[in-house]
Amino acid sequence: MILGITPLLSILRNLIEVVAYSVLFLSLDKPKFSWKKTIWYYIGFIFIVTIIGTVWVILEPVSYLKYCTMVLFFQSAVFFSLMSQDTFLQSLYKIALQMFILLFLLYMGIWIAIYFFNGNPWVDIGIRIGYITIGTILSCRWIRKPFRKIVDGLKFQWKGICMIAVAGDFLILFYATRPTHIIIRTSTEQRMFLGTCILLLVTHVVMLGTLYQMQKEMADRQEMELTAMSNEMLKRELEWMQEHVKEANRTQHDIRHHNLMIIEYVKRGERTALLDYLEEYEQECMKYHSIKICENVVIDHILGIYIEKAKQKGIQVIFEVNVKKEIKIRETDFIVILGNVMENAIYGCEESGSSQAKITIWIQQKSGKLAIRIENTCLSQVLFENGLPVRKNGRGIGVISIVHSVEKYKGDVDFQINQGLFIVQILLPILK
């Protein structure tokens, strides 16, 4: 048997493999629980899997060499995905990536021990410990940050690359164990195996590079979208200010005539006519009075702009908003969330073609959370993919921006259709 099998070596090899797999996965993961609790869970997982593997390799060494990696893959797929905040497909890709790295380094350690150290098993053990240490340092210091940027920025583009990664791992496993272990096969077959590993490595690099570019382009598009929305809001604010300035100038110009009219009514003792005149004047002033939606200035401005825009398009707007003046959510995130939801609501009303299109806005702050519910008239059929609405020309950048901004605060967002209404529900924890 390769490099010899004893109880001590079996325990060490199993322990090192499971620790390596767990540590390499954690170096790229965002745990669901606190780090303290996560570490204890992983220690329990490592202990159980190590015991199972050790017993297996002692009782059935041949079947262990053929199937141990595959079994470890399925064990890890279940446990790691339950422990991670990332989606199942993202976790599955990380598992497949780490499995490939683990397989490649394990075989390299065995080759080096056999061909350069006469099959000394302790050289193999030392090499395994060395690559765990070096791999963890490299992953945490240089790989984790860009990889997390890809994972956090892209939530819906992982199905294809997961299939490729998992298929590549099974190809390596199949080729390495059939008809016999790759180490005891001819040098030509071993070179072909090494070439296959290098090809798979290049495939991973290309896929990650593509995802990085996609994430970068999406971030640029989100920045452009945010800038455009901010500019639109600024433009509307300036228009309102100009209107108010014009009205103030007109009022100042006419105030002398206004005062003269009051004086004349008083002199004549025409009290009823004076009251009618003052009421008419009050109604004229109210035309230029801005509706106050809530105490929070940011929400008030954002909703004010889109409510005005909706009314100009003949869309009825009903709102009930109760939010305090100060709230610990960034202005830019409010612009992304409320701006996109309102923009989509207006678009949905227009697309419905209904003469009685309506938008209902309900926002309440209570119990440390901000609850948002916005309904709008829409078409009876709206396509959904992975729980998100999809336009005919593909998923809108606005929807992804909403989801990304809500997830930053560990909130929840839900999209649904009910009786001709498109409903968006958002729950945001208010940061302390």
Describe this structure in words.
The chain is of the alpha+beta class. It has eleven helices and seven strands. Strands 1-2-3-7-6 form a five-stranded mixed β-sheet, covered by helices on one side. Strands 4-5 form a two-stranded antiparallel sheet. Strand 2 (358-366) and strand 3 (369-377) form a beta hairpin. Helix 1 (7-26) runs parallel beside helix 5 and helix 6 (159-177) packs antiparallel against helix 7 (187-268). The longest helix is centred in the middle third of the chain and has 82 residues, at 187-268. The two termini are 60 Å apart. 27% of the residues are buried. The model has no long low-confidence stretch (mean pLDDT 82).
Overall mean pLDDT score?
A: 82
- The strand order across the widest sheet is 1-2-3-7-6
In N-to-C order, the SSE pattern is HHHHHHHHHEHEEEEHEE
Rg from Cα: 32 Å
* General shape: elongated
Q: For the record, give the distance between the C-alpha atoms at the N and C termini, rounded to a whole number.
A: 60 Å
Quantity of strands, as a count: 7
Percent helix among the residues? 55-70%
Beta fraction of the residues? 5-15%
State the helix count.
11
